[in-house]
Amino acid sequence: MVQVLEFVDVDVVRGHKEILKKFSWEVDEGERWVVLGPNGAGKTTLLQLASTRMHPTRGTVSVFEEQLGKVDVFELRPLIGLSSAALLNHIRGDEKVLDVVLTAAYGMTGRWREEYEKLDERRAFQLLHEWGMSTMINRTFASLSEGERKRVQIARALMTDPELLLLDEPGAGLDLAGREDLVKRLTTLAQDGAAPTLVLVTHHLEEIPPGFTHALLIRDGEKVAAGPLAEVMTEENLSTTFDAKLRLMQTEGRFMAVAAQ
Ligand SMILES: Nc1ncnc2c1ncn2[C@@H]1O[C@H](COP(=O)(O)OP(=O)(O)OP(=O)(O)O)[C@@H](O)[C@H]1O
């Protein structure tokens, strides 16, 4: 089995700020991880490292068993799908939905070639269909709702048929129905044996799709707990992570937490 991610004693320091401290974490092929933590915990920084967009200040990060700093990251990047708010800023509002997805095959945003491989076009159509966007392929990205944009972004992240899919807060800004639609689609993805290894970052327990297998809890750049979901999701771990006394509830394979009275 391939080790997809291996962080060993990773520090990330910017100015006087230690964003990650002695952080170690391993993700194996086929696992579905949720990364939970409060604002500023270091979750996006973790995804920046995992997506090879950032190198650690100290320690080592290996992606598909290749150590960052000793490998050409441009060889690794097609294996990694990333959907994040930062990437959203690079998508032009007047770009057509189909092109937003299609251009990922060429590692770019913005259509620049007139001719695309038929195979790529078919894959983009197929992904947009799977993510419920087939009726909107000729719309501009700017004209979409927040939920539709999120789905297009995930379709784009899947375009290169990656072996690792990183989703940074895909539920942010969605209303209740939009969130539930997203959770349902991510549940289907998580249960698909052919789907890539998944890492989903969120603040909200309600967004954890059934079928996710592992959890990483992070606070102030440090790991609180990591491992199989059922072992990690305890009131004690969550209370420590969010610095609040929490009551944890589970229903229909979903989690939620409220402040303890
Ligand atoms: N270049 C930088 N210089 C200084 N501090 C930084 C820099 N980049 C990030 N930070 C800080 O590091 C901390 C972790 O940031 P990060 O974005 O990884 O957290 P996060 O868990 O994703 O937060 P959120 O949930 O709010 O998105 C934050 O306090 C942030 O302000």
Automatic annotation (TrEMBL):
InterPro entries on file: AAA+_ATPase (IPR003593), ABC_transporter-like_ATP-bd (IPR003439), P-loop_NTPase (IPR027417)
SMART domains xrefs: AAA
Stretches assigned to the ABC transporter domain: 5-245
Keywords, sorted A to Z: ATP-binding, Nucleotide-binding
Gene3D superfamilies: P-loop containing nucleotide triphosphate hydrolases
Signal peptide: none
GO molecular function, one term: ATP hydrolysis activity
PANTHER family (UniProt xref): SKFA PEPTIDE EXPORT ATP-BINDING PROTEIN SKFE
The protein, known as: Iron ABC transporter ATP-binding protein
